[in-house]
Amino acid sequence: MESSYAIRSEALSKTYRQRNGVPIHAVQDLTLSVPPGQVFGFLGPNGAGKTTTIKMTCGLVKPTSGRVWVGEYDVWRRRSAAMHEIGAVLEGTRNVYWTLSAWNNLIYFGNLKGMHGKKLALRAEALLHELDLWDRRNDLLRTFSRGMQQKVAIGCALIADPPVVLLDEPTLGLDVQAARTVKEMVRKLAQEQGKTVVLTTHQLDMAQELCDRVAIISKGRLIADQPVEDLLDLFSEDYYQIRVQGSMPPDLIARFPEMTTREDNGDTILSGPVADQGTLFSLLGRVRDLHLTLISAARTEPDLEEIFVRLLDAGEAGEMARPGSQGSTHRGEE
Amino acid sequence: MKTAWTVVLGEVRKSLLVSWTYRVNMLATLLTLAFIFLAIVFLMGGGKLKPEMVTSALVGYLTWSYAAQTISDVSYGLRGEMQAGTLEQMAMSPAPIGLILTGRVLATLIIGTVQALILGIALVLLTGAGLPLRWAGLPVLIATLVGVLGFGFVIAGAVLVLKQVESMFNLLINILAFLNGTLLPVDAMPTWLAAIARTLPSTQGIIVLRKILLDGRSLTSTWQDRSLVWLLVNSAIYFAVGWIVFATCERVAKRQGSLGQY
């Protein structure tokens, strides 16, 4: 039976208890569906509950309540079948054995998925060629660069050719070149091999570039779940960037509470939605009154990072983000 | 079933490969074990090596080295997997972690057998003591190791939940050396201590092994005097309890979200 979703969660929650008994609600009532064949970005600040969600999906952390399926299999009721459907590279860890060669790592993780013999050897050989590691297949991983080790970890996640691949911060700690290689792999997995890739990352430019759809989670709650294009459209109207010379001290930044600020080449960029011309003139008036040197003011398209910040701000303020009239974020029910 | 077998064999293969990268450490461990044994039997013999005492102690010492190696490998090995992040990858196998761990302990037993053979031969040559190997000893050794495997599961479960408990296990290994009859026969212990000692893993195995290897008795004879029966019961209980404890601890670790944390 084909499932119409690669991953699905229903009212998934996880509460940890600290030693003093105080509960921490890591994930709350998360209902989410990931269609097959998509690159799905799962975004959120540190401690938002991304890794806990990923680990509940991998059968490593037991949910306090709710259910999660991989394909048609409930991860906690049909664990063995679900694990055949999934491969993962988890965050911040080595995932692979540094004291083994690339070849032996792939063979071992293939064995763990129940593969053996010629089929496994052929799959390992194909992956090592694809990862451009064939010539170094017999070298121990401790002699590899961080990027090469990460490629082996991804290879191990793919050894059983699972339809669903979870990559938790796959480019963390990689240099630009290695990160680019990983990005290319993610793209190929989805576009050429039709796999579903769930990607958590803090690199929002990467998420924007690769993902078909993103979900944003904050304090364990889902605050957005939409195709990337729809999310970008949410703030596309009346969005302005005002560049002023030099960096701004916090007390001046506080005078623009409706704008997000960031530094760029020594200048400060104030970004945010501007409802009408009157608001724009009011903003520029404040720039003048504070004796800031205006460099430019331009209407622009917000990137995913801007949207991410605004959605989080809205979440912090206790509102489910409903910015503008063009669309709305929702809680993942399809 | 086929998947289970593939997983166990895969784990055995990997554990042997990883161990091979630490072969120098293993050689150092062997030398240390040999030195400690020689020192102990020298002291026990009042400054002399008495062959009959050496033979009896050697049977116990080699059996104890299996248990010690299993305890050490399971506790330190699992800790290493947690630190490396590979434990969570292992736990994503369709097979239960307990089965994977069985593969690991099997690898430990293979390595332990090679070490015991090297150590045994070296000590026999060095001390001039005889070690009458008999096939009847093999099923007794296997039954003993099943109990040790169960004990290994208990330890693995404790590592999953309690994390930093290696010092406790070092203590446990040393207690085993004194209480399982390795050096001092259980019959020579006070009644209450002997009763405790007989419940430990490997104690009854050492008793039966000594009967078969040193006294030349048959398996039937040890069955009739109930010592073999108690060994089988003891090992079966340890294995069953070990498996249940490990499965429970795995569930607790997953509920706490601490499976891969150290």
Q: Would you mind describing this structure in some detail?
A:
The complex is a heterodimer of chains A (334) and B (262). Chain A is 34% helix and 26% strand. With 334 residues, chain A is of the alpha/beta class. Chain A has 2 domains: 7-231, 3-Layer(aba) Sandwich (Rossmann fold); 237-300, ACT-like. Chain A, domain 2 (Alpha-Beta Plaits, 2-Layer Sandwich), CATH 3.30.70.1150. In chain A, the strands form 3 sheets. In chain A, strands 6-7-8-3-9-10 form a 6-stranded mixed beta sheet, with helices on both faces. In chain A, strands 2-1-4-5 form a 4-stranded antiparallel beta sheet. The longest helix of chain A has 16 residues, at 176-191. Chain B has 262 residues and is mainly α. Chain B has one domain (2-256). Chain B is built from 11 helices and no strands. Chain B is globular, with a radius of gyration of 19 Å. The model of chain B has no long low-confidence stretch (mean pLDDT 86). Classes of the chains: A alpha/beta (334), B mainly alpha (262). The interface between A and B is large, with 40 and 32 residues.
Structure characteristics:
heterodimer; A: 334 residues; alpha/beta; Rossmann fold; Alpha-Beta Plaits; 2 domains; four-stranded antiparallel sheet; 11 helices; 14 strands; 26% strand; B: 262 residues; mainly alpha; globular
Instruction: Provide the succession of SSEs of chain A.
Output: EEEHEEHEHHHEHEHEEHEHEEHEH
- Total strands of chain B: the figure is 0
**Quantity of strands of chain A, as a count:** 14
Helix content of chain A: 25-40%
Overall morphology of chain A: globular
The total count of helices of chain A amounts to 11
Mean pLDDT of chain B: 86
Cα distance, first to last residue of chain B? 32 Å
Q: Provide the CATH top-level class of the largest domain in chain A.
A: Alpha Beta
Parts with pLDDT < 50 across at least 5 consecutive residues of chain A: 320-334
CATH topology of the largest domain in chain A: Rossmann fold
Give the CATH H-level superfamily of the largest domain in chain A: P-loop containing nucleotide triphosphate hydrolases
User: What is the share of helical residues of chain B?
Assistant: over 70%
**Most extensive interface: pair and counts?**
A-B, 40 and 32 residues
Oligomer: heterodimer
Strand content of chain A: 25-35%
Question: What is the approximate shape of chain B?
Answer: globular
Spatial strand arrangement across the major sheet of chain A: 6-7-8-3-9-10
Query: Please, what is the average pLDDT of chain A?
Result: 86
- SS-derived structural category of chain B: mainly alpha
